Amino acid sequence: MRSAPLPTSLAATLASAATFLLPVAGAQGAFDVPVVVTPGSTATITLAITVTDGVDSETDVDSIQVAVDGNGRFTISPNQPPHDGAVIQEGRFGFGGGTLQYELFCSPVFGCIPVTVNLAGLSATLVAPSQATIIPSGRADFGTTWRVQGDYTITSPLSASAGAIDVNSPSPFGGTFAIGGGSMQVSQLTIGAIDSQTTVDSLPGVTFLLHTEVAFGATTMVGTYSPPPPNGCGTGANCGLEHAGPGCNDVACCSTVCGVDPSCCASDWDVPCVNQAVALCGIAPEHDNCAAPRPLSFGRFPFTTRNCNTDGGSLITECQDIATAGAFTNDVWFVCTAPFDNGIAVSTCGHAGFDTRLAVYDACAGVLLACSDDGPGCGGGTSRLVFPGTAGQSYLVRVGGKNAWGDGEIDLALADVGPAWPTSVTATWSTASGGNGHAYAVLALPGGTTFAQAVARAAELGGYPATITSAAESAFLRSNIVVPQLGGPTAIGLVQGDGAEPAGGWSWITGEPLSWTNWNVGEPNDAGGEDFAGLYADGSWNDQGPLFGNVLIEFDAPPVLQERTWTVDEGGAGQRYRAVISPMRVSWEQAAAAANAIGGSLAVLDTPEEAAWIFRELVSYPALWSMTPYNGGPWVGLRKQPSGSWGWIDGTPLSWNPWMPGEPSGFGDAACFFAVQGGPAIGLDDTWTANLRRSFIVELPPTPSCPADVGGDGQVGGSDLAQLLGAWGPCAGCATDIDGDGIVAGPDLAVLLGAWGTCP
């Protein structure tokens, strides 16, 4: 009997499984996986025997279940999902033996002759590698050839024959593959049928045709592998910095990130990839430090502050909050360039998962230009700020948290920037711009000031609580006057007399007709006897009781409010002081230098009475203050000396207590007016000299010996006379009020005419 090949289907199945697990030879980005048949696997071998003498034939079929073992090696490509190529490089299956029973040579007279076939030591070994495509379902089918080996015995009443099987048999092989996470499985194995033939020496002229099939049932092949790094992992690009091209230089981190987001190794290592690297690998983004800011264009971009250090400086007091004292931690940095002169908005408002802070600087360790914390309408403590950008100028944007880190998106956009803080306490609505020529100023009042007292204080300064009689006037005020949110309501000159509550009987104190109103929604409502009007920050009105913290004063002609003389009648000795509001925030040293340039020095408050007068006449204008929860007022000339004691800038020691309660706290070496969660207050705070303030108080030399020289040109002449006549009437603090009685009148004219000519 000739040796017969094992079924082709079995051989093909073995080859196909092996191919799935191993990478394609020579493929770019491929990897090898060794595999084994899972223990306890079985297969059903079905052998059909057809007996023919060339004229007639008959067939019988029998099956046996046998144990299966085996191993192999596959090459899989590409090395990152989705995998679509497989090569079976090596493969071998071993099958347990068994006995099959047949009834052959049947006739009506003699019946059938029983035939027994015993199989033992069957195996199928892959002859050569074969490649296949893995389709989306995971299926791959290979064209394979197997070397089939084994031993057999055929026994019948007529004869017995034994021999060995050793043939090569082409037989397709296939399986369904699952690859990922370092493991691989091949299931649903199939192998094509094997057809062969043999003869028995005792039956000359008779041929046995053998058709063998193998059904693997639940047999699977499994293997493990070390996931190869994705394409691009290990390159020279930093994982914490976005860059063109896939992957980054840290193989382990890159592989982790690409396992979550395959696009990071398929296209560019962009900002989301950086954020994944920061979150998953414990690294910090490249723009963790101010020296290496990330360019920021207009639009919205993801960012993270995970694992970041804090290299930005302390916030100025104006930018600090009460709860955390201005904590600004785990910061990252961006740089943006203004395309033209326009406001630029920086925002995490509603699109960050933690309590953020924002700040904008002109350079590392440079000037703070803007800051934001808990922007209006921004949930979760997120922030938004707008600053004026100058074409071509680059700005550093700092993003961090309040003792926290997290993820979010930062948005950069063009925006309308609000007016810069005024450099004067007054704003004049000029006739040239369609106005009435009047000036306006907000003055802070002592706590619990009545409306009548507010009217009296305004009159002392030459004005009255403002009457806002048109939409145009209201619009001017909204754009040029900051209505305080601290210190209490702001009074205007609208009161309610007899009339139907809540809207009846309202009139302006000047007698002007009430032909236009701007009540806030739901107002007036007379909630508890409200007969006076207050002004909101948005320009709308509210009816309320008689106590106020501020008053908006209207002047028929622009007054001089920022330079005052402490006259003898008021308890002084003729000292002059000036309140200076800087266009940009200034440190104590900068303020001291500016005061010297003006011809004076930072104010020295020798006595409580002097401090009280300066506060009342100059410092109580909110325009000099930050009007934030930590409300910073103007610098004065008090500084800690090398000895550790406090003294004035002129060398005079501090001989009384000018401090706010709890101050000096020991955290600073220079002094300024200060309040916490309130409007302007009389009291000083110690702070560091590099802190920034909007204003400072300058003490000037006594009134010149030629006070009639109003213009200061060394001559008393026609121009001085014109200025005096133009200011005729109440004009407290005016330079033309030569005798300092608050009224420009005959005595002042007499002094001027008496000094006519060249000043001595």
Helix and strand arrangement:
Blueprint: H1 8-21, E1 31-37, E2 42-52, E3 57-77, E4 85-95, E5 98-107, E6 111-126, E7 130-133, E8 139-142, E9 145-155, E10 160-170, E11 173-180, E12 183-191, E13 194-199, E14 207-215, E15 221-224, H2 251-260, H3 271-281, E16 294-295, E17 299-304, E18 329-337, E19 342-347, E20 356-361, E21 368-373, E22 384-389, E23 394-401, E24 407-415, E25 427-428, E26 439-450, H4 451-460, E27 464-465, H5 471-480, E28 490-496, E29 506-508, E30 532-535, E31 541-544, E32 547-555, E33 563-566, E34 575-586, H6 588-598, E35 601-602, H7 608-619, E36 630-640, E37 646-648, E38 670-676, E39 684-687, E40 693-700, E41 715-716, H8 718-726, E42 729-730, E43 743-744, H9 746-754, E44 757-758
Parallel strand pairs: 16-18, 28-32
Antiparallel strand pairs: 1-3, 1-15, 2-3, 2-14, 3-4, 4-6, 4-7, 5-6, 6-9, 8-11, 9-10, 11-12, 12-15, 13-14, 17-24, 18-23, 19-22, 19-24, 20-21, 20-23, 25-26, 26-32, 27-32, 28-29, 28-30, 30-31, 33-34, 34-40, 35-40, 36-37, 36-38, 38-39, 41-44, 42-43
Helix pairs in contact: 2-3, 8-9
Description:
- The protein has 760 residues and is mainly beta.
- It has 5 domains: 8-224; 286-415, Jelly Rolls (Sandwich); 427-555, Mannose-Binding Protein A, Chain A (Roll), CATH 3.10.100.10; 563-700, Roll (Mannose-Binding Protein A, Chain A), CATH 3.10.100.10; 715-758, no CATH class.
- The protein has a 15-stranded antiparallel sheet that branches.
- The model is unreliable at 1-27 (pLDDT under 50).
Task: Supply the helix-strand structural class.
Answer: mainly beta
Computed CA radius of gyration, to the nearest angstrom: 47 Å
- Annotation, overall tally of beta strands: 44
How is the biggest beta sheet arranged? Answer: 15 strands, antiparallel
Instruction: Please state the overall shape, judged from the principal axes of the Cα atoms.
Output: rod-shaped
| Number of contiguous helices | 9
Averaging pLDDT over every residue, what do you get?
88
The share of residues in extended strands comes to 35-45%
Assembly type of the chains comes to single chain
Fraction in helix: 10-25%
